[in-house]
Structure to design on (162 residues):
């Protein structure tokens, strides 16, 4: 099961309100299992100490895009996906990279990089929104090419001044 499907089936241990969307957090006491973009709605108070810390850090980022996350993320994904997510996590704030640039670094295809981005279980913390199509177009986001999630990507990029 991928992280997005897991997130849909799991109860949220916290839901944090953001402008035009919410962030759902799935975790246990020791690790964050996933973070997901949700439509706007009611917040959910944290159910445990780690959920409270994740909610605090997400709120700090929403208030200040310079905020640096320090959260225990559960190891997940294939070795290739983890390499893509490592490259994404290394993109400096206020900058973007293209799927093609990351693919060249990893000696793989841009489509494979896009698929790995779409399976990122920790969006915002691992900033897949900073990955764009060649030429600066938005490309997709979380395996969507239009609608709500692209609006979230636009907001995140503007929030970070990209």
């Amino acid at each position: 099961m991928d992280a997005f499907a897991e997130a849909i089936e799991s109860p949220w241990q916290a839901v944090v309100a953001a402008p035009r969307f919410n962030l759902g957090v799935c975790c246990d006491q020791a690790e964050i299992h996933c973070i997901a973009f949700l439509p706007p709605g009611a917040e959910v108070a944290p159910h445990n100490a780690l959920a409270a810390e994740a909610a605090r850090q997400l709120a700090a980022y929403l208030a200040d895009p310079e905020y640096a996350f320090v959260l225990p993320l559960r190891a997940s994904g294939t070795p290739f996906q983890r390499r893509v997510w490592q490259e994404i996590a290394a993109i400096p704030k206020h900058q973007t990279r293209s799927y093609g640039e990351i693919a060249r670094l990893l000696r793989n295809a841009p489509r494979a990089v896009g698929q790995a981005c779409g399976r990122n279980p920790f969006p915002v913390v691992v900033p897949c929104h900073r990955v764009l199509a060649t030429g600066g177009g938005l490309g997709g986001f979380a395996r969507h090419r239009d609608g709500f999630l692209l609006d979230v990507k636009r907001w995140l990029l503007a929030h970070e001044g990209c």
Observations:
- Residues 1-10 have pLDDT under 50 and may be disordered.
- The chain is about 40% helix and 15% strand.
- Residues 79-159 form a domain with the Arc Repressor Mutant, subunit A fold (CATH 1.10.10.10).
